[in-house]
Amino acid sequence: MSGSSGALEIAQAIRDGKMSAREAAQQALARVAALDPKFNAFTLVTSERALAEAAAIDAKRARGDTLPPLAGVPYAVKNLYDIAGVTTLAGSKIEAAKPPAARDATAVASLHKAGAVLVGALNMDEYAYGFVTENAHYGTTRNPHDPSRICGGSSGGSAAAVASGMVPLALGSDTNGSIRVPAALCGIFGLKPTYGRLSRAGAFPFAASLDHVGPFARSVADLAAGYDALQGPDERDPVCRQGPAEPATPELARGVTDLRVAVAGGYFAPENAELREVLMRAAKALKAARTVEIPEAARARAAAFLITAAEGGALHLPALKTRTAEFDPAVRDRLIAGALVPSAWVIAAQRFRSWYRDQVLALFQESDIVLAPCAPGPAPKIGQESMELAGAKVNIRANLGIYTQPLSFIGLPVVAAPIAQAGKLPLGIQIIAAPWREALALRAAYALEQEGIAAAPIPAL
User: Fold this and answer.
1) I need a surface site. Which of 75, 81, 197, 399 has the fewest CB within 10 A?
2) Per annotation, catalytic residue among 92, 110, 154, 219
3) What's the CA gap between 357 and 369, in Å, rounded?
4) pLDDT in tens, 104-151
5) Roughly what angle, to the nearest 10 degrees, separates helices 343-363 and 297-322?
6) Cα 144 → chain centroid
C-alpha cells in the first residue's frame, strides 16, 4: 500500500487477507529508509520489533483469531516514550547514557494491544521544550511540504513522519501546543485530549501539571481510532484514573447539526489574512452562530509560561548544576531561568489558573465547540529567529504557541485540523471542546473533512 494509505485502510486489508502484516511493516520500513534521510524524523528504527509484532499478527490471522482494531498498522512514537529495551532519549544527550527502559510506556502498550506495529522513535525538541524541532544533538526535522522549513515542535518528528507518509499513525505529547503546532505546520490532524484522559506513564515528563499525550494521523477516522486505543484508566499515572473508555469512533458520523459552534474572538482573532480566511471557512461550514471572548487569554499564556518554566526547571535542576554543557543551548537557559522563578510567582499563577478555568468553562454552557487558530501562520524557515506579530518582531520559538498555550493551560480537549489550501503551505485550526468531550471535537473535525474543508495535503516528496 502507498504512503498515503490510512491506518484503518491497512488494518482492513490485513483482515481481508489482501496483504500481510509483515508486508505492511516491510513497506513502512522501506518508506522510512527512503524518506527519512531527507526529513530526519526518526532517531531510531525498530525493525526487529516491527517484524516480530507483524509476525504475531499474521499468526493470529492464520489461526482464525479475531484481529484487534489496528492489526498490523505501522506507527512510531516521540522519543520521550519508553520502549522496552531502548534508552528513552527525550531529545537529549544526557538521557542517552542511561539504561534502557524496562517496559513500554502505557500508550505504547495500549497500541500494541490494539495490534499496531512499532517501527521507531521520533525526533523532538530537547526535553519537549520548544516549537521547532531544531535539535542540537539529533539534528533538525524538516517539513515534508517544504524541507527548507520547520515542522513545528516539540513533536516535530511525529508530525513529519505522518505528513510524509512514512507511518499512518504517530504519538506525540503536548504541554503548551506540541501536538497542535506541528500538526498545523505539517498539514495533518492531531489530538490533545483532556488533561488526565490518556495515561502519561512511561512518557518522559516536562511540566507535570500541563503534560498531555496524544495521536497524529492523516484522517479523523484514524485519529479517533488511535485515541480510542489509548483510552483507559492507569494507576501508573496519578491523574489518569477516570472510568471506562468512551470510544469516539462511533460518534463521528452523527453530524454536527446538534452542536452549538462559536468562534473565539479578541485575543484569538488572527492577523494573518490566509489564516483568518480558513478559520472563517470552517466556521461557516459548521454554522458557527456567535463569537465568544475567552477572558484574560494573554494572562493565561503568561501564567502557562511561568508554570512550565518553573516545573521544567525544578525537574532538571540536578543536571543543570552538574552537566550544564550537555544541554541543548536553546533549552538550557530557559530551564535555568525556570529554576530561579520565585515560588510566590508560581502560587499566584496557580491561583489565576483556577479562576481562569472557571471563566472558560462557563463559555461551554452556551457553546459545545469553539474554533480558534492553531499556529499564527505557515511554517517559518529553518533557522529563522523572528516573525512579525501585532506589528512587532517577536521570537519564533516563544510565540508559535500563542494560540495553543491558553487552552492547554486548563487541559481542554482540542483537535488540530488542517484546512485545505491548494498549492499553499498548510494552515490549521483548533476545534476546542469542554473537558471530557473529545468526541464532540472529533465529530466537528470529521464533518469538516467530509465536506472537503479539512484535509491533509499530500506533499510532493
Assistant:
1) 399
2) 154
3) 16
4) 999 999 999 999 999 999 999 999 999 999 999 999 999 999 999 999
5) 140
6) 17
| Active-site residue (options: 5, 178, 199, 367) | 178
CA 14 centroid distance within chain: 27
- Distance between CA atoms of residues 274 and 280, nearest Å: 10
| C-beta of residue 49 within 8 angstroms of C-beta of residue 86 | no
Domains of the chain: 7-450 (3.90.1300.10)
Instruction: Confirm whether 47 is a catalytic residue.
Output: no
pLDDT tens for residues 238-295?
999 776 789 999 999 999 999 999 999 999 999 899 999 999 999 999 999 899 999 9
Active site residue 367: no
